[in-house]
Write a structure and sequence with these properties.
Largest sheet: 6 strands, mixed
CATH class: Alpha Beta
Order of helices and strands: HEHEEEHEEEHEHEHEHH
Number of helices: 8
Structural class: alpha/beta
CATH topology: Aminopeptidase
Strand content: 5-15%
Strand order of the largest sheet: 2-1-5-10-6-9
Distance between the termini: 9 Å
Radius of gyration: 23 Å
Number of domains: 1
CATH superfamily: Peptidase C15, pyroglutamyl peptidase I-like
């Protein structure tokens, strides 16, 4: 009669193997939430359809299980007085163009959303372009360009300065080439490219919020993180980019990102499958010795 019950030393070995198999996933998890942000137009307008605020998005949130891809897309952005164009200033609402406001809003919002991926957008250079930043550079608090309201620079007591050192370079973890190729193929913007220059993100709020996204990824990319983040990065959008083209490019970017997430997010039940496989292996070894 075949006995499939493990006992004695072999039972201990099997239990240890199963524990080792489960350990990397035991405390791991993630949401299916993607967080996107905007600053000056057109970047706030182009992400507004993904806002859950009826005031900012009266037509209704389109981000729930967006396009049936299994991911919820949430956007956050400030609004501006049209009379202030083209020098839009600070704005009002989430992520005002202000270091103190951006830092405080960041902590509040990521704690709510716990994003699996983040894209921060901001207005970039003149022209119609989609500039995917390959890396960003941390600066000392007094090395940032001033914003619009005192205190006009970030302060050393902001959480990000505890983790990132001055002059530290942080790479994007977005699928950058895929985004560039998709935006071009969509016909929305032909001048899409990856920026690898030494100007980095510009030492203003664009780079500051972009670093927050990449810092969040550094904090939460570990396999044991209960709310793991898989990708984060920043994209500059040309000043003269028409809203329709910006909308198309945003959608193309999100499709590439969700496709990428499908390749890196563990499938449900991975740990169970591994542990069951090792249990079966242990049982087979025991049976072969009977």
């Amino acid at each position: 009669m075949l006995n499939n019950t493990l006992s004695g030393p072999r039972a201990g070995i099997a239990a240890a193997l199963i524990a080792l198999a489960i350990a990397p996933w035991a405390n791991a998890g993630h949401t299916n939430n993607i967080m996107i942000t905007g600053y000056w137009p057109p970047t706030n307008w182009m992400v507004s359809r993904f806002s859950t605020s009826t005031e900012l998005n009266p037509d209704g949130w389109i981000g729930g299980n967006w396009e049936g891809r299994g991911y919820n897309v949430y956007s956050f952005f400030p609004t501006f007085n049209p009379d202030d164009a083209p020098n839009w200033g600070k704005g009002t609402g989430d992520f005002e163009v202000d270091y103190q406001d951006t830092s405080a809003d960041w902590q509040r919002i990521v704690n709510q959303i716990k994003p699996a991926a983040i894209i921060t957008f901001s207005r970039g250079n003149a022209g119609v372009n989609w500039e995917v930043e390959s890396r960003l550079k941390m600066r000392a608090p007094n090395a940032w360009f001033p914003d619009y309201l005192e205190p006009k620079r970030p302060s050393a007591d902001m959480p990000i300065f505890a983790d990132l050192a001055a002059n530290q370079i942080v790479p994007s973890t977005l699928p950058m080439q895929g985004i560039v190729d998709a935006v071009k193929a969509s016909g929305a913007i032909s001048n899409a490219y990856i920026d690898t220059g030494n100007g980095f993100g510009g030492a203003f709020l664009s780079e500051f919020i972009g670093l927050h996204g990449e810092w969040y990824n550094l904090q939460h990319s570990g396999v044991n993180d209960p709310y793991r983040n898989y990708a984060a990065g920043h994209i500059h959008v040309g000043i003269d980019t028409p809203l329709a083209a910006a909308n198309m490019a945003t959608e193309a970017t999100l499709r590439v990102l969700t496709d990428y997430l499908d390749t890196v997010v563990p499938a449900p039940g991975t740990a169970i499958a591994v542990s069951l496989g090792l249990t079966t292996l242990a049982r087979r070894r025991r049976a072969s010795q009977i």
